[in-house]
Specification:
Number of domains: 1
Keywords: Membrane, Transmembrane, Transmembrane helix
Largest sheet: none
Number of strands: 0
Mean pLDDT: 95
Shape: elongated
Distance between the termini: 16 Å
Length: about 50
C-alpha cells in the first residue's frame, strides 16, 4: 500500500513541477509524470523487498 501512495505522490509532485515550469498542461507532461511515478513505485517496491 505504501508503494501506491509513494507513486501517487511522485506523480502529483512531478506534474505540479512541470506545470509550474512550463505554465501549461499537456498530454506529454501527464504521460511523463506517469512513467516517472511507475518507475519510482517499482524502485520503492524493490527496496521494500530488499530491506
Amino acid at each position: 500500500m505504501s508503494t501506491i501512495i509513494f507513486a501517487f505522490a511522485i506523480f502529483c509532485g512531478w506534474l505540479v513541477f512541470d506545470i509550474v515550469k512550463h505554465r501549461k498542461l499537456t498530454f506529454e507532461m501527464v504521460l511523463s509524470s506517469m512513467i516517472v511515478a511507475v518507475l519510482a513505485g517499482l524502485l520503492w517496491l524493490i527496496l521494500e523487498w530488499i530491506f
